[in-house]
Amino acid sequence: MRKVIRNALWIVGLSWMLVTGAVAEDIKLSDLDRIYRLQNIQTPPPVIFDLGGEDVSYDRKLGAFVSAKEESKRQTVMRPLISMLPEPIPPPPNRTPLIAVVIDDMGVDVKRSARAVKNLPAAVTLAYLPYSKNIRGQVASAKEQGHEVMLHMPWQPDRDTADPGPNHLSTGMTAERLQKNVVANLDGFEGYDGVNNHMGSRFSRFRPGLAIVMAEIKKRGVFFLDSKTTPDSAAEKVAQEYGVPVTHRDVFLDHDEDPQMVGSSLQEVENVARRKGSAVAIGHPKDVTLDNLEPWLATLESKGFRLAPLSDVLKFREDARVASITRKK
Predict the structure, then answer these.
(1) How far apart are CA 71 and CA 316, in angstroms?
(2) pLDDT tens digit string along 204-245?
């Protein structure tokens, strides 16, 4: 009987998404994963959604981009169905769940970037756009405050009207031009511990270009974070093929700038961390994000979490992966 109910829920949930199109990305990715696992489906059906740039999703059913406000309505409709699914088995109770918070797009909005550096704990990782004003001075200030720093590399999004910025990486470039732009970005400033993509839904599916990126990142001896602006990104797999330490984003905090939705995203970060033992969240230096993030971060220790630099979460996940392989042998 329970299996019948599960099958029915799965069919209803997938049918609803086919009819209404995309919902907010972090809801889709985390909860569809649970639905597929319940059904023991190794290969999910063809992807029907992706994120088409900053704060907007592309609905393949409708053939149009959907605003964050519309996506919020769909989240509200889907949550009752999602809440009926049984929770996955939590990580061992003797292991403190880790949470990494990455603030992207640092450097362009100097005032709010400075607020993030000053007010957020040192364990928060900051990702700077290499074309920001006085980038070296801004990065130096962040490192003086103890923050782990990343280089936020601009990649081509699906949405043609979205501009990722100077020296961005595009699927239409020659190998020589891509190589030049990758190096120009990586030489943008010094002292970064890792790299992640700014926008990049289209480029993160482009394996030939990703190979050039990962080969250069490997030379620098730093890690890569797949921002996962599209669920069919190949960036993490290509990084693994090139021996680049890599992990991925779990939750976007502020795709919807409504304070309630940011609060819901922070709750989702806690849920993912409890479920998987770690969570990686990405936000931006926006007032609504920082207003919610600053008090929330102060509560993590009392809730049984540890706020950690992204490199710590990456190591935790790699150790867990190796241990899993060893057990199977």
Answers:
(1) 33
(2) 999 999 999 999 999 999 999 999 999 999 999 999 999 999
Instruction: Report d(CA 20, CA 43) in Å as an integer.
Output: 23
294-298 own/partner pairs: CB under 8 Å, 24+ apart: 294/119, 294/120, 296/266, 297/101, 297/120, 297/121, 297/124
pTM: 0.75
Structure tokens that stand for 313 in this block: 């979460």
CA 310 remoteness from chain centre: 12
Tell me: do 135 and 77 sit in the same domain.
no
Please determine, for residue 166, whether its predicted confidence score (pLDDT) is greater than 70. Answer: yes
Q: Please state, in angstroms and rounded to a whole number, the distance separating the CA atoms of residues 23 and 51.
A: 10
C-alpha Rg value of the chain to the nearest Å: 19
Query: What does each C-alpha distance from 326 to 168, 178, 225, 284, 329 come to in angstroms?
Result: 40, 38, 25, 38, 5
Classify the C-alpha dihedral 180-183-189-195 as positive or negative: positive
Q: How far is CA 109 from CA 56, 132, 138, 153, 259, in A?
A: 21, 9, 11, 16, 20
Q: What is the CATH number of the domain that holds 212?
A: 3.20.20.370
Q: Which two tokens stand for residue 280?
A: 């990686």
Q: CA 31, CA 37: separation in Å to the nearest integer?
A: 10
- Contacts (Cβ under 8 Å, ≥6 apart) of 251: 26, 30, 265, 268, 269, 272, 279, 280, 281, 282
Q: Over the stretch 99-134, which tens digit does the pLDDT of each residue have? A: 999 999 999 999 999 999 999 999 999 999 999 999
Whether 51 is covered by a domain: the verdict is yes
- Which domain range does residue 54 map to? 2-83
Number of domains in the chain: 2
Q: Which two tokens stand for residue 9?
A: 């829920």
Q: What's 301's DSSP letter? A: G
Which of 83, 109, 129 represents a domain boundary (last residue)?
Answer: 83
